[in-house]
Structures are given as C-alpha cells and as structure tokens.
C-alpha cells in the first residue's frame, strides 16, 4: 500500500477529531451535526446567544450515536432535541467540548481552521423564512479549477457583521463525491488513510481478487481496475458499464478505471473531501506506473494540490452553514439506474451489486442521515450491527443483507417545513422503467412517487423543489440525447432528463397545471456542469403558476467550453420562445424564456464556470435575485430578464451621451 507512514501504535497517536463538525439539518427545536473521531469521544454541545446565558448539553446516548467503522474511526451522529426553541434570525455561537484526560477542549483547540479571525467559536443562524439560500452540485476534487465551497466560505466571511443577509442553508443537489471518477493520487491517499485508521475490510465475490486487502495490493488496482473483473462473456456488459472508460463524444468522457469498490474506500473519500485533518496523517507515495500513467498521475496531483489548498475554507463553510444534500449518479456510479437493462446488468452480478451497495451505505452515514434522521432508524440499526461485530473485516452475509435492504429503501427524499417548504426529490431509485424498451432511459420518478409529490404540494402557496436533474433543461441537448437513445446508445450521452420518458414528463407537467398546487414554484437543479435560469409559464393561461428553473453546476467542475458555446448558440437559434420547433417537444404547452447572464457574451444563455448559486426570495416565494458566484474570484453573475438587460444597456448609453454633452459644454 503506497504510504511511508506506519499505522499508529496507539489511539493517542491520532488527533481526537478527524472531520467535522458539519452542520446538517437545523431548526429551532432540533440540531443535527456530523463528526468523525479517531475514538469514541465524550462531547458536550455548548450554545450561546447574544445577551442570553450559555447552554450546555451533554451528548450522551441517545443524543450522540457513536458508530465504529474502523479500528481508529468512529462516526458521531449528533441529534439534539431542544425543550426551549432557539431564537431565529439571531447568530448563535456553538462549541463541541471534548473531555479527555481530565481536560476540556473546544473547537478552537482541536480544529482552529474552522474559526474566522477573531472568533472564539463557530456560529450558525436559524432563519425564520427561506428567503436566501446557496445551492450547487458536482464537486470533483481533481478538476483543474477553484472550489465553489471555498467561495461559500468567503461569502460567509463577508457577511459576519450582517447576519440578516446570511443564507438560510446550503443545498448540495448531487455528486458531492465522485465515486466513479477518482484521480490516481486521491486513490493513493484513500488507501493510505484506510491503513492509517484501520478502516474495515471486506470479502469480494465475483472479482479476480478475493478481498479488499488483495484489491488494494494488486498491481492493477491503479487505473486498471477493469482487469480485475472475471474474464468471461457474461461480465462484458458489467466491464463496459463500471470500468470501461466509455468515450462520450457529445458531452464528456467517463473515467472509471479507479472506481471505488469497498466501503472503506468510499468512507475514506468522504473524510478526504470534507476535512484537511486526514491529509496531515498520511504521506501517500506514487504507485508503480508506466510512463503515460505516471504523467497522468502528476497532472492529477497538481490539480489535487489546488483542492487541498482550499479545503480548510470548505470545511469552515460546512461548520457555519446548515447543509442539506441529495445524491445524484456520481455519488454511486455514472448513469446509476439509467434504464431497466442497466439495473438488470448491475444488480445481477455480485461484484457490481456490492459496489453500488457500499456507496449507498456510505451515503446513509455521511449524507442521508443528516437530511432526515427519522427516516433511517431501522437502516442505521442494521449498519451498527454490521460494524459492531467486525474485528478487522465486515461479515460478508450481513453486508449483503444490508445492501438488499438499501436497494429496496424508498425514503431517500425529504421535506423541510420552511416558509416556503423545501421539497427534495429522489430522482435515482424510484424510476419509471420502460417495460417495452428496457434499454431506453427510465423516467426519473415513477407514477407513485410523483403522486406522493403532488399530495405534498396541494394547497401550498409556494414551494422550492430540488430536482438534481433540471426539469426544464436545454432543449437542443435533450434532442441530441433523444436521437442517441433512438439509435440504441443512451449511455453515450447521459440521456437522463425529465422529458426522456413520456410517462414521467406528462405527470410532472400535469402537476404544475393542477389548480390546487402552488402559484409559485422554484426548481433548483444541478447535474449538467453549467448554470442557467428560465422563467416558465403555461401558455394561454393568465392565472397559471409561475415557475422558475434555476440550475447551478458545478461547484468544482465545468462543461467543455467550446462545445457548450456551440450548443448554447444553436439552442437559441432553434428554440426561441416563438420557434415552431417548440411544438415538437413535450413542453409545448409551456413557454420557457431563458434569463441572460448579465456579464455574458452576446447571445449567451448558459454560464460555464465553477462556483455556487445563490437565490433570494420575496415573501411570496418568488425570486428577487438569481446569482452565480464564481469560484475563481471574478464578479458574480446575475441572471436577468432580457428586458432588464436592455433597460440597463439603454441607461448606460444615456449616461455616456450625457457625459459627452457635459464634456463638450465645458470645452466650449
């Protein structure tokens, strides 16, 4: 294993806290936090509001569930109900006090990088209304660009003296990790951290390696994991799907040769993308590689170094702002559950089933639980039983049984009772499968899930819906995806959009037209690696709902620039709001009008750049301002209506003319 550091001889060789705290779902009556320690920690939560007495809560069971995932790795899932609700719209300082060896230490002692200059403790704000939120998706560590989560940190730093201007929460709408696209240096760090912390191993069925130790030590484990699959015909589809590196000439290319396999690998990646502390415990060495792969490794290492430089800022943002999450495909694997045929292939083989299941177990522990702890009670008990009985390896049968339960689980979605309510959709596991054409893309939600969504929306005045894939996307790109699907190659173009399946498209559009569903909808999305905003209206209806599709992607990822420019221009020419081609789409009864990036080039509707989106809402749940903050430090982008841009341009011209007249007058 590529590291020159031995495993620690004792627990004391490691810092007590490895990652966190992360603020998860917060309300005046209940606080949810996530933390990982190198041992089971005795913690107390301290709360302090301005002008009030400090409040100390001992985090004993059941307020803190300590779940062991390795010899020196314990998840601390903190869930604190409050008898007296906390105040809203007021900064609240908090601290996690650690008691060891008769001493009490706080975050300032064991994670000073989480504090802003001059602060004694981190703080959070509970907003009375969902009037301001940040959102984004797609954070790939080795992408050669700045990190949008570091931009979140700089935004929060600038608002410390203006608490009313702070966002209510950060919504991460998918691809918080890339389990299927891992840089070589990241995989080396993952393996070093597994060894350093003693993360639990496992047996592997259906591969040419028998267990996790053999996988990590195998010379093909870097960049050539596809060769570790069984070499017989029934595995060809599996090989192509998970490790083939299939070229996708229209949009992007997959890079699955370092696909994460074991639970320990996925858990280690979460630690490494959310905290700088694990990086201080390891010194990964480059594995033996040929010249081409060594060059690739060096390029990826340079990109990863940039990610690591900004990681303390990202961790600080997650410790100051409540964060909600939902998976998309890369949190598990590319094109996850794309079609019925895909599911038949992936779940019909023990090796691929384990790969998917391990990613789901890690998602529960690191993302899903913090969104809605009440939904995961039974699942969490099963995970606790699995890890509690482990010595250095998980029980194979129990792990498979847990995965079977997760593949049947139907409560990944959730709702926040904010004003307006925030409804987060699961568009990955409850798919509307095509029975007549199993290779065609499934609908993103089935009829039953969509019916439940409609019930959630009845008689609400406004709603913010989080759909990882845009409901109203770029029509030209969707048309290209449809052509490839009809040709039998949906995998080549990531043919996953709401309009790709007639049933789900019809039902979701009918929900918007229902007379008892909200008057104002905001749809937040990610997935596509570019950002845009649309105003959507129902044609020929004066009193119909107002819909805004707002997409921010990626946090640390971008679309190929020249290709996106081409698609953007062609889409504008072919699908203007008055184009007859609109009547050939499933959204023909909807008028979709794009907003314009105010600093974009002429004709530009899509914005390409890593960063984070921001949405400001009025009291009726309508957007007051739609922003995209760029991770590279350049000025933010506002998505504005065409008329607003023309007015601003006209005012600027008038100003130039007036200044010219004044100069002429002075000269005369």
UniProtKB/TrEMBL annotation:
Domain of life: Bacteria
Family matches, as Gene3D superfamilies: PhoD-like phosphatase
Enzyme kind, highest EC tier: hydrolase
SUPFAM superfamilies hit by this protein: Metallo-dependent phosphatases
Enzyme Commission number, as recorded: 3.1.3.1
InterPro entries: Metallo-depent_PP-like, PhoD-like_MPP, PhoD-like_sf
Entry's Gene Ontology molecular function annotations: alkaline phosphatase activity
Keywords, alphabetical: Hydrolase
Protein name: Alkaline phosphatase D family protein
Organism name: Azorhizophilus paspali
């Amino acid at each position: 294993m590529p590291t020159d550091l031995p495993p620690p001889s004792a627990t004391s060789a490691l810092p007590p806290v490895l990652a966190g705290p992360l603020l998860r779902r917060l309300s005046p009556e209940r606080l949810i936090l996530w933390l990982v320690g190198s041992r089971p920690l005795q913690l107390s939560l301290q709360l302090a509001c301005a002008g009030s007495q400090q409040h100390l809560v001992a985090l004993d069971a059941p307020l803190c569930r300590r779940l062991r995932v390795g010899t020196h790795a314990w998840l601390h899932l903190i869930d604190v109900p409050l008898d007296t609700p906390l105040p809203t719209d007021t900064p609240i300082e908090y601290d996690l006090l650690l008691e060891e060896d008769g001493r009490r230490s706080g975050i300032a002692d064991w994670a000073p990088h989480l504090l802003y200059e001059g602060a004694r403790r981190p703080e959070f704000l509970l907003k009375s209304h969902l009037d301001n939120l940040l959102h984004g998706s797609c954070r790939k560590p080795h992408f050669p660009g700045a990190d949008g989560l570091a931009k979140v940190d700089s935004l929060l730093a600038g608002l410390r003296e203006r608490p009313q201007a702070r966002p209510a929460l950060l919504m991460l709408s998918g691809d918080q990790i890339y389990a299927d696209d891992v840089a070589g240096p990241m995989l080396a760090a993952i393996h070093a951290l597994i060894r350093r912390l003693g993360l639990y191993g496992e047996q592997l069925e259906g591969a040419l390696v028998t267990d996790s130790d053999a996988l990590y030590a195998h010379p093909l484990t870097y960049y050539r994991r596809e060769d570790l699959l069984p070499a017989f015909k029934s595995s060809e589809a599996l090989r192509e799907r998970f490790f083939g590196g299939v070229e996708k000439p229209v949009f992007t290319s997959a890079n699955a040769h370092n696909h994460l396999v074991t639970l320990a690998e996925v858990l280690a990646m979460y630690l490494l993308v959310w905290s700088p502390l694990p990086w201080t415990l390891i010194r990964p060495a480059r594995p033996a590689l040929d010249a081409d792969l060594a060059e690739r490794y060096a390029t990826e290492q340079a990109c990863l170094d940039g990610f690591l430089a900004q990681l303390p800022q990202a961790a600080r943002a997650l410790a100051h702002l409540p964060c909600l999450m939902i998976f998309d495909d890369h949190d598990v694997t590319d094109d996850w559950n794309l079609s019925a045929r895909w599911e038949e292939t992936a779940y019909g083989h023990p090796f691929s089933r384990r790969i998917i299941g391990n990613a789901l177990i890690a998602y529960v522990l690191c993302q899903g639980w913090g969104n809605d702890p009440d939904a995961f009670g039974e699942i969490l008990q099963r995970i606790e039983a699995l890890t509690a009985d482990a010595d250095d390896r998980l029980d194979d049968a129990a792990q498979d049984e847990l995965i079977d339960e997760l593949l049947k689980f139907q409560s990944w979605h959730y709702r926040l009772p904010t004003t307006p309510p925030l409804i987060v959709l699961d568009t990955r596991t409850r798919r509307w499968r095509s029975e007549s054409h199993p290779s065609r893309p499934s609908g993103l939600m089935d009829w039953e899930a969509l019916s439940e969504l409609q019930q959630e929306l009845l008689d609400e005045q406004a709603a913010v819906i989080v759909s990882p894939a845009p409901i109203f996307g770029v029509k030209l790109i969707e048309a290209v995806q449809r052509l490839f699907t009809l040709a039998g190659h949906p995998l080549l173009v990531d043919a996953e959009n709401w309009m790709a399946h007639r049933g789900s498209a019809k039902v979701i559009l009918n929900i918007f037209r229902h007379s008892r569903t909200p008057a104002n909808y905001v749809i937040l999305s990610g997935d596509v690696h570019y950002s845009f905003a649309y105003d959507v209206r129902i044609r020929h209806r004066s009193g119909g709902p107002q819909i805004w599709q707002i997409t921010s992607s990626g946090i640390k990822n971008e679309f190929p620039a020249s290709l996106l420019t081409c698609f953007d221009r062609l889409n504008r020419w072919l699908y203007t709001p008055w184009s007859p081609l609109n009547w050939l789409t499933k959204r023909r009864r909807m008028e979709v009008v794009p907003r314009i990036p105010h600093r974009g080039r002429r004709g530009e509707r899509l914005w390409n750049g890593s960063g984070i989106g921001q949405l400001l809402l009025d009291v009726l749940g309508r957007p007051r301002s739609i922003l995209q903050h760029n991770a590279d430090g350049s000025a933010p982008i506002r998505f504005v209506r065409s008329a607003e841009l023309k007015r601003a341009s006209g005012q600027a011209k008038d100003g130039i003319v007036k200044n010219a007249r004044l100069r002429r007058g002075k000269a005369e």
